[in-house]
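Archive entry. Fields below.
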Amino acid sequence: MKSSSPLKWFGSREGLYYLALAFLLAVILPLVLDPFRLNMVGKYLTYAFVAIGLVMCWGKAGILSLGQGVFFGLGGYCMAMFLKLEASTPEATAIQSTPGIPDFMDWNQLTELPWFWEPFHSFSFTLIAVIGVPVLLAFVIGFAMFTRRVGGVYFAIITQAIAAILTILIIGQQGYTGGVNGITDLQTLKGWDIRTDEARTALYFVCVGMLFLCLFVARLVQNRKLGRILVAMNAQEMRVRFSGYDVAAFKIFVFCLAAAFAGIGGAMFTLIVGFMSPSFIGIVASIEMVIFCALGGRLSILGAVYGALLVNAAKSGFSESFPELWPFAMGALFIGVVLAFPNGLAGLYRSYVMPLEDRLFKRGKAEAQTSAEPVATTASAEKTDDYDPMINTYSPEKS
Amino acid sequence: MSAAKSKGTDFLLAVEGLTVSFDGFKAVDDLSFYLDPKEIRVIIGPNGAGKTTVLDLICGKTKATAGSIKFAGKELTKLKEHQIVHSGVGRKFQTPSVFEDLTVFENLEVSYPQGHSVMGALAFKRDRAVVEAVEEVAETIFLTDALNEPAASLSHGQKQWLEIGMLLIQKPDLLMLDEPVAGMSVAERKKTAELLRVITRDHTVLVIEHDMQFVGDIADRVTVMHQGKVLSEGSIEHVKSDPKVIEVYLGH
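PREDICTED_STRUCTURE:
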């Protein structure tokens, strides 16, 4: 059955995968990268939040959303609004015709702060809004779509339309949103300058911490019965319904969960990159997010993190040397994933690396068994990687 | 007859004036029938008679155009599918629909009537009661040795049994089975008949079946459907000797 104590879990194969990722992100990368590069990795990681959400929503439950940029953007804009207000003190904006409001509002002849900006003076409200606003929108969309049994391609198209609408809205309402430039020139968080190298490094670690928090929430969901229902729903929606489950409620839940992750990622993006603009939330950005998830392996939450890191690193690398080639490389990557390895990197890892590990593990185990107390032999001991749906293998009780 | 009968509360299931039309075509047309508790009723009829549609209507998969379906005194036509399941109606589909990625144990566990809300499914724990219920059902459906197998690896007949097991663990009052022995080998058929006999000890069962021998084996009463209507109803002997049934279904 499942490992009983958390300590034991870290010794299991799944635990080692998590430890390896933590070691890579929290020890190796900070040691080998300069603050500028580390900040870039932090930016890539903010996309990993979205990718984890997509694993749950698309990989597990089969709901393809091509509009995750919307939730990423909402989380990011919430954070950006707070930071912008903090940067727009009457003293700092004394040269404006209306001091005390963000500069772009002044340029657009606004003379007072719009009502929906007011609550973003409060940091606690902002933190709630970073998750609350994306989840609320996801709930409204999910409720409207899933209770009417809109799914599959139709749902994907609708989410894409919403991404387009939000982008157009933000660009069009320049005075309220900063328009196509976005919300820029963010400086401090509660008086702490976020532009220094130290602050950026600290924010990187906050990002890694939040990422692991999200990973554990996702892992909890996938390992509970809830996770098995999501997988079951994907393949046999009808049977789930006639097993007594309200399928729409489960779809709304997982869509909201993905939106919450994306919102957190967006807020971290704003903090790490220092601004937010519509180009990060539109249709293209949203589709790229799906590619991160697909490349990493759409059934593996850890794979999603690696997918986001690798695709973004490749994007930066390509853009630095051959900027015009990147879109083609991205397209080729997506086609490659779909045709050649539909389960992404995690799938490749599973078929080629894990058999090697198996051999190593077995040898290690045999040695351990001769020296220490016998290892518990359960059917699940061999296969507890993070996307095995049979994670809780049943073993008859010996009572 | 129907007006008088519907007043009674003795029936577990009372279907009255049930009609559904798809773009003007009446797949089920003013259909009425009544099930007693613990009764085994078999619906037979030629292809396109509307048999499967009747089950779809009862379990909420298809919405009725007119008529009423009263189950234990409760109107089902206004309820959603999962609410109908919670009222005690279980439905097995014609082609086996089990969760291929999950093990046999998990298939049964998912169907266990507990933790059906989102939060409930998050908090659900595999306790003794669950394991015992699963083991009990697994024994009934001959799958005790396959509990850890993924459902995808089962044979066609075993999948059919698994789906029946998934209904049994819900502890429904009414079981609806759509051609449970279709595509089964002779040996599997025999075992299924045995299984149904066990099940029918304490369930009301509504079965669609073509195999007349099998029907004769299990049915208390038979309803013959033709073009969305009841053609004949009664014991298997009665139905078999009904000239109308011979004409449209059994052949001369």
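CURATOR_NOTE: The beta strands of chain A are 188-189, 192-193.
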